[in-house]
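batch job 7 of whatever, protein = FAD binding domain-containing protein
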Amino acid sequence: MSLRPLSINLEDYGFRIHKWDTGEVVLTQRRPPPDPEAPVLNGHRGELHEVVFNYARDELKIPIHLGEPVVDYFESQGGAGIQLQDGRKIDADVVIAADGVRSKARELVLKHKEKPVSSGYAVWRAWFSADALLADPRTREFCENGDTFNGWIGPDAHFLFSTIKGGKDASWVLTHKDEYDIDESWSLPGKLEDVFKALEGWDPLCKVIVEKTPSLVDWKLVYRNALPNWVSSGGRIALLGDAVHPFLPTSVQGATQAMEDGVTIAICLRRAGKDKISTALKMYQEMRYERVKAVQQTGLSTRDLWHKTDWSKVKENPQSIALPREDWILEFDAEKHAEEAFESLLKPGL
């Protein structure tokens, strides 16, 4: 299935950045001309997961087992494996642990237990049908003119709102300060009254949009620098994605970098072969480490750019508040890079 029908189309509308209190549009950021070789597609991550899942299951015929939680990992000299909640153990040549910020495999790789640490921020987020927005004259414009994307930038907070699929669906996120520590749940049902309080003094249109929301979640943002070790001491278990390098949403790169991890590790395993799994995993980390560290920093810099905005500077140069779109990030070909880097990294002792 093509991803384009599921993606937001902003070629005409662009990204409109508003001043938080007046609602003034200070910048309309246009998307670069589309590159047919590397199209930029934005949409709902769950729908992307579904497309990839169906392709793996139906086209590649990969067996996928759902509803079987992994409770532990183990490693031996000749392999690795997982233990399921029902007690079964499954042996393998290699284990790729993409088990998120609360990764159980990370404890095995690091040889100590590490508690997730809050970044000091959380996001309220929601995705819902845009019917109520269409029915309200104050918000109808966001549903009648194709896809839209708007952002309100305020003091230590920002509110992003978009409509997608021709204005049929809507989503918003509000990044806000969060002083509570990570506990057993880092995703909780959100309360509209808390959002309204955070939006006091903001452009009234923000509250009008939020009022249409049937439900929302309050999601703690976990951040840490990329771990020094991505691969277990036995060289048979590797961490991938948020398990090893969680990103802030302001990087707009969390899912993308996890996919780059996947491409890289697949090429390393294919090129190294079954007899050199440990070598392949070490090469994967070496290829990815510095790039991931650099991309992670963009999330911090963009958050600070928006949350500590100098509005006098923006008045002189509206482009100063634009969402950064770095060519070195967006034009990177992970597959090509892994293929080219493989030979140079294949050296004695790796």
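notes: The CA atoms of residues 250 and 304 lie 10 Å apart.
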